[in-house]
Each structure stands twice: as structure tokens, then as C-alpha cells.
């Protein structure tokens, strides 16, 4: 009897933990119309309530600024010699992280920041243009590596990517697509970005897109 009760208690605890974790898994399962009523005719029927996904009450605005090819010694915000009063003001209203480890290259650093993972786990061990078939060096962020923007979007945030996006292979930056690695299919509702940096002539292709 004691063993049976112990097993039931363990199972109950496991289910409670599983349910708690399931609530954090994205995408969230679609909710059924719990309060809908379906009768024989429309007169006997009642539509259910559609729940809209919204950011939690009091959720903060999130602004992440990535500046290429620089370090802590440059900006006054982190003790550098360049006065940056506007960055100082933003920093005072938010949090300062002083243990961010860059990869010394823009594409890998951006991939790590966007996904919260090691740049090799994000498939970007090198600059996008010189990616190859070695594991972790393809130069393409895999679909299994979700970006934080998608997590925020599915949690009710509106998201935007503005600036340089040097994380798409050159062959995928034309108007012909494919578009699945563009910001709008990686969690960003709106983007105004430079899609690639072409080393041959220094030109960049810029495009503004909106999630459909």
C-alpha cells in the first residue's frame, strides 16, 4: 500500500511538472471554443470567445542594439573614451550585461545574439559568404534554432529588425527568394535591413518587408 501511494504521488508530481513545462512550449496548442454552443439551428447556437495573444500586463519594451566591430573600450556607456550620452540614457533605463562574449565576426555574433546559443549551434561559425559543409559552419541558421524574436512574437509582442542582417547567404537575398531565412519568417513582424554584404564591390542590398 505504501509503495502504491508513493507511485501515485510520484506520478502526480510528474504530471504537475509536465503541465507546467507544457505551458511554456511554443507554439502553444490552439484553444478550443470552450464556451461555444452548437444547436440544431443558428438560433440555438452561440459563438465562442476568441482569445487574443497579448504580452503580459506590465511587460517591458525590449530593445537590443548590436554594434559591429567594436568593443567595451569604445563606448562611454561601458567606460570607453567615446562620449555616448544617448546610449548612456538607454542603459540607465535598462540592464547592462558585461559578460557578452563576441565571436570577433559580425555574422556569428549576430547569430548567437538572435538565438541565444553558441554560434556553432546556430550554424554560423564563420561569415555567411564563406560557409561550407562542415558541421556548425554552413553559414545558415537552422530552423531548429529558434530566434528570440519568434518567442516574443508568440508571446504577444510586436517585433522589428532594423539595420544590417549579414546572416543570409548571397544566393538567397534576391527578390526571387527563397524567403524562409529572411527576418519576417524568423519572428520579426517588420524589418528594414541590409540583407547581405557583398565583398566583391562593397554594395549592400537593402529592403523593407512586413510579415504577411
What's the quick description here?
The chain has 212 residues and is α+β, with helices and mostly antiparallel strands. The protein is 22% helix and 9% strand.
Q: Count up the helices.
A: 4
Secondary-structure element order, N to C: HHHHEEE
Number of strands: 3
Strand order of the largest sheet: 1-2-3
Radius of gyration: 23 Å
Shape: globular
Q: Which structural category fits the helices and strands?
A: alpha+beta
Q: Profile the largest sheet.
A: 3 strands, mixed
Question: Which regions have little confidence, pLDDT < 50, spanning 5+ residues?
Answer: 1-22, 198-204
Tell me what portion of residues adopts beta-strand conformation. 5-15%
Cα(first) to Cα(last) distance is 59 Å
List keywords for this structure.
three-stranded mixed sheet; disordered N terminus; 212 residues; alpha+beta; 4 helices
Description:
The protein is α+β, with helices and mostly antiparallel strands and 212 residues long. It has a domain at 102-212. 22% of the residues lie in helices and 9% in strands. A three-stranded mixed β-sheet has the order 1-2-3, with no helix packed on it. Strand 2 and strand 3 form a beta hairpin. The protein is globular.
Summarize the topology.
Blueprint: H1 2-22, H2 85-93, H3 106-115, H4 148-153, E1 160-164, E2 190-197, E3 204-210
Parallel strand pairs: 1-2
Antiparallel strand pairs: 2-3
